[in-house]
């Protein structure tokens, strides 16, 4: 009879519907952000530097690097708005940007690039003799066939086999696996296009398709420009393939989130709240009556203790026991304390507002929405607009920024640590203020959160 009554109660079916909706929201939250990063990629930051000094021939100075620069930065149907190019003046500037995690990669055209191309047009490899004699080469443009090569250059070419020209690719692997894969794809495509154009220029300079190409040069002619890939910001071993900052940040958030749930329910039990099962009543002893403000203050103090000890324990396990690679240990521990405390206070806001049901809302916001928008696996340029905006108000995004800066970028403030500290401090201050205001409101006799049981229930 009682069972039949339960199934006739609309609340029973409302719970089932809520559970099904939760499953749908979980799927939408995760899969909606991660399924198609390629279609969502816009404005991925790349750098190009032209350090080519050019070469003088026939009284004119040619700079093949300028042609490369123009070709790379031109919008193509393949790239569209997926890539945003920034032109810098020097390699040092590019390396600084990569050290601050402000670009996925940099394409650097070396100072001797034009000399290398001119040497190939003359049928030889770049050398001191080639550079000196190139000024006497009457070739005025890449498409004009080169005249007879001076004897000194011919001798050098015979002694040194022709080599393809090189373009340096500086990678920022610490940005993550997906940005690195995109960087490799974009740079390889760009260099392949450059190589094809240079091959056409070389064939014309050497006399056209019907001309007899020197045997030593024919092997280079198929691929006259190659990329020299340098991992400027490597991740190294024991970094989960470069994803350890996100996993560590996720654990910091969960430490604060789960820790606050335990602290909240534990204090509810100590206060004798009726929402706590009476099965554990024997464990709590006599109920301790606390006002809403006293309960709120107790939880804040316990959260601070949780943050200090929790960060030390997490760093000890991850670094000391599991040998996670990290550039700076102490900044990671200190930042971890801020991260756990902020996550706990952010969760406390939901619990203070809605009581025990606030736990469900905190799960939705902190994990199912926070994880996809944290820029841990995919950077913001690969996320849908909704998740880019959502991440700006959630702790996990700033925790990830700070941890990645500490683990891979030597705690460089410009690489995300400053942004992470500032973001967490703002979220923490707002959550602390709002939850305290709600507790004060409850103190004045207004009903929010879990109801205080009557004396007979305690």
Description of the structure:
The chain has 458 residues and is an alpha/beta fold. It has 3 domains: 1-35; 40-231, no CATH class; 240-443, no CATH class. It has helices at residues 2-8, 10-34, 37-40, 64-73, 91-99, 113-121, 128-134, 151-159, 177-205, 215-221, 244-271, 281-284, 292-321, 329-354, 358-369, 385-391, 395-408, 417-443; strands spanning 44-50, 55-57, 60-62, 83-88, 105-109, 165-171, 225-231. The strands form 2 sheets. A 5-stranded mixed beta sheet has the order 4-1-5-6-7, with helices on both faces. The protein has a two-stranded antiparallel sheet with strand order 2-3. The longest helix has 30 residues, at 292-321. The radius of gyration is 31 Å and the shape is elongated. 42% of the residues are buried.
Order of helices and strands: HHHEEEHEHEHHHEHHEHHHHHHHH
Using only CA atoms, what is the Rg? 31 Å
How far is it from the N-terminal to the C-terminal residue, by CA? 31 Å
Annotation, overall tally of beta strands: 7
Helix content estimate? 55-70%
Tell me the count of domains.
3
The biggest beta sheet is recorded as: 5 strands, mixed
């Amino acid at each position: 009879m009682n069972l039949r009554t339960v199934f006739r109660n609309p609340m029973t079916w409302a719970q089932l519907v809520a559970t099904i909706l939760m499953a749908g929201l979980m799927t939408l939250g995760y899969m909606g952000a991660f399924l198609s990063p390629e279609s969502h990629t816009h404005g991925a930051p790349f750098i190009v530097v032209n350090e080519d000094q050019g070469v003088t021939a026939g009284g004119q100075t040619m700079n093949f690097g300028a042609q490369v620069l123009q070709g790379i930065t031109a919008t193509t149907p393949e790239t569209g708005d997926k890539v945003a190019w920034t032109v810098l003046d020097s390699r040092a500037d590019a390396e600084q940007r990569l050290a601050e995690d402000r670009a996925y990669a940099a394409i650097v055209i070396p100072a001797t690039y034009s000399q290398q191309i001119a040497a190939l047009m003359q049928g030889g490899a770049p050398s001191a003799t080639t550079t000196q004699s190139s000024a006497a080469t009457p070739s005025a443009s890449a498409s004009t066939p080169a005249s007879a090569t001076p004897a000194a250059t011919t001798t050098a070419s015979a002694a040194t086999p022709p080599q393809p020209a090189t373009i340096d690719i500086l990678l920022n692997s610490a940005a993550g696996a997906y940005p690195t894969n995109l960087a490799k794809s974009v740079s390889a495509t760009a260099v392949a296009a450059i190589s094809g154009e240079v091959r056409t220029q070389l064939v014309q300079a050497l006399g056209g398709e019907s001309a007899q190409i020197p045997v030593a040069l024919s092997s280079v002619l198929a691929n006259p420009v190659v990329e020299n890939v340098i991992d400027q910001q490597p991740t190294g071993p024991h970094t989960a393939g470069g994803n350890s900052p996100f996993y560590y940040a996720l654990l910091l958030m969960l430490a604060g989130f789960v820790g606050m749930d335990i602290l909240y329910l534990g204090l509810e039990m100590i206060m004798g709240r009726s929402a706590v099962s009476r099965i554990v009543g024997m464990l709590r002893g006599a109920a301790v009556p606390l006002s809403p403000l006293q309960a709120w203050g107790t939880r804040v103090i316990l959260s601070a203790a949780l943050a200090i000890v929790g960060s030390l324990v997490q760093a000890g396990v991850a670094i000391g026991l599991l040998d996670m690679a990290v550039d700076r240990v102490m900044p990671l521990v200190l930042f971890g304390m801020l991260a756990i405390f902020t996550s706990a206070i952010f969760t406390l806001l939901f619990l203070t507002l809605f009581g025990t049901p606030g736990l469900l809302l905190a799960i939705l916001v902190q994990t199912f929405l926070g994880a996809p928008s944290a820029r841990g696996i995919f950077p913001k340029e690969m996320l849908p607009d909704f998740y880019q905006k959502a991440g700006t108000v959630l702790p996990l995004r700033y925790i990830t920024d700070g941890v990645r800066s500490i683990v891979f970028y030597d705690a460089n403030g410009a690489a995300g640590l400053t942004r992470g500290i500032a973001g967490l401090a703002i979220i923490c201050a707002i959550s602390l203020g709002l939850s305290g205001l709600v507790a004060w409101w409850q103190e004045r006799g207004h009903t929010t959160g879990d109801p205080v049981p009557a004396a007979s229930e305690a």
